[in-house]
Amino acid sequence: MIEAHQDFAFMDGDRKFTCRVETSRRSPAEAWWWFHVSTEGEQRHAPFRAADTDTRREVQARVVAYYDHLLARRAEPPQQRWARRAAPAATPAADPAPTP
Questions:
Q1: Confidence at residue 31, expressed as pLDDT on a 0 to 100 scale
Q2: Tell me, what DSSP letter sits at residue 83?
Q3: What DSSP state is assigned to residue 80?
Q4: Pairwise CA distance, residues 48 & 37, whole Å
Q5: Least confident piece of the model among 20-24, 33-37, 93-97
Q6: What is the dihedral of CA 31, 33, 73, 40, to 10 degrees?
Q7: Residue 78: exposed, middle, or buried by beta-carbon count in 10 A (0-12, 13-18, 19+)?
Q8: Average pLDDT of 47-61?
């Protein structure tokens, strides 16, 4: 367990992750893990709530998995979210069985 949700940093390849817990402005009883990645300038992320049982190793693994997934989504080609979806093609009716 991370003592009192202490801030920490770690390296993953050439990326430095800096993690800290902050309470929600809307609900001070809720605490979230926030992290910053050295490769992203000032961008921060808050992917999951902090729990008293969190361990540093567990938080590290979750942060890296979240960030790697985010990079994979960013690398995908853009999709038209507001485009009308085409109506599904009608399925042809089955041919009736021939009568003898």
A1: 92
A2: S
A3: -
A4: 16
A5: 93-97
A6: 130
A7: exposed
A8: 94
Strand order across the 31-37 sheet? 8-12, 15-23, 31-37, 44-49
44 contact partners, CB below 8 Å, separation of at least 6: 34, 35, 36
Average of pLDDT values for 71-94?
70
For the record, the structure tokens of 10 come out as 């770690």
Could you identify the residue written with the tokens 């997934």? Answer: 69
pLDDT tier at 25 (50, 70, 90 boundaries)?
confident
- 90 membership: H or E segment, kind and range: none
- Cβ-count burial of 66 within 10 angstroms (0-12 exposed, 13-18 middle, 19+ buried)? middle
Structure-block tokens of residue 97: 């069985």
